[in-house]
Amino acid sequence: MKENKDAISHLLMRIEDIPAVKNILNTICLYTGMDLGLVTSHNGHQWIACAVRDSLGVGVTAGQQLELHYTLGDEAHDKHAPIIIPDIDHCENEDWKRKLYAKGFKSYIAFPIVDNDGLFFGTLCTIDYKAVSIDRERIAPLFELLAELISFHLSSIAKIKNTQALLGEELQYSERRDTLLSVLGHDLKNPLSAVITLSQYLADKLENAKHKQTAKLIYDSSYRMKGLIDNMLDFARSKLGTGIHLNKNLVELDKVILQALREIQTSAPHRKVQTNLGAKHPVTCDHERMAQVFSNLIGNSFRHGLAENTIVIKSSIESDRFIFQIENDGHQIAAPIFNNLFKPFVGRKNQKEGGLGLGLYISKQIITAHSGDIHVKCFDEKVVFTLWIPI
């Protein structure tokens, strides 16, 4: 019994989700001159009234199981065919006569409602105690169109609810995934910091050239891994809603740029870099975050710029802004990638090294948190990143 009630409630909810049903019932009653309009559904063994417009006063309500005299819909169900009876007295079907005479009904119209998969849902019908004069050529297309409209809404609403359910599951999955990334990143940072510190110490202290080179390789790989973890952690924080927090102090940013450059140049000492740094005054900003931005942008130029050409790095203070610019020669960036460079997980087809595609996204978030901006331009096979923050 409970399952049956739940099934009926589900049917009613499906129809109640369609605001147009009320107007549809009003329309068919108006055009036919009949006073009882119904949307019915057949669940395999019984007919249910899903929506009712009762000006006839027969007492049918939504959710009610329909008696035999309301249910000539078996023909519509079995053959997916419409039924049009302007006057039952002139009908040759004795079974239909018996059913309608039982309640004194004279006229009856029912059109099948069939979903996009060809499955029968129910009928759109009108009933009255009086006979009516019906122009079949006008009424039939109207009923057919309105029945199709109900079917369309049923299918669309079902798809929307299914999509919403899938989206809810995906959001939960994304939250768990981002939490995992955050926890994993924190767990990796401490041992990795120890590896970086020790490898840097060994690279400075070891005298054997081969051992020194090995320590340097460990340092370079570990430092790159640290950058990936930092970006991953920041991405997870942004998705978890905690955002990028700043710890602002007065910082000499030219020194930060040079430090970031030195760390990256250790893995590519033969790359040519020209610096023109003119930010002579300290800037109020987050030292670590700006170092992360410079490291991301310089590393990006090292990875994507042509190895034989010079990378140009500039800084200046103009009016009330600190401005940083880095330029490298490189291949033209495809428009779909160029237009989305500052979005997460966007890669370059000519990328020489693997990566998460988060560096530019995180840099954009950090600069935005500083109330600044960052943009990129491509011209004459040159790629130029420019950022500014208020001093």
Automatic annotation (TrEMBL):
Record's keyword annotation contains Phosphoprotein: yes
Q: Does this UniProt record's set of keywords contain Oxidoreductase?
A: no
Query: PANTHER family from the xrefs?
Result: HISTIDINE KINASE 1 (PTHR43711:SF1), TWO-COMPONENT HISTIDINE KINASE (PTHR43711)
Record keywords: Kinase, Phosphoprotein, Transferase, Two-component regulatory system
Q: What class of enzyme is it?
A: transferase
Molecular function in Gene Ontology: phosphorelay sensor kinase activity
The molecule here is called: histidine kinase
**What InterPro entries does this protein map onto?**
GAF, GAF-like_dom_sf, HATPase_C_sf, HATPase_dom, His_kinase_dom, HisK_dim/P_dom, HisK_dim/P_sf, Sensor_HK_Regulatory
Source organism: Sphingobacterium siyangense
Q: What is its EC number?
A: 2.7.13.3
Pfam families in UniProt: GAF, HATPase_c, HisKA
Reaction it catalyzes: ATP + protein L-histidine = ADP + protein N-phospho-L-histidine
Q: Which residues form the Histidine kinase domain?
A: 183-391
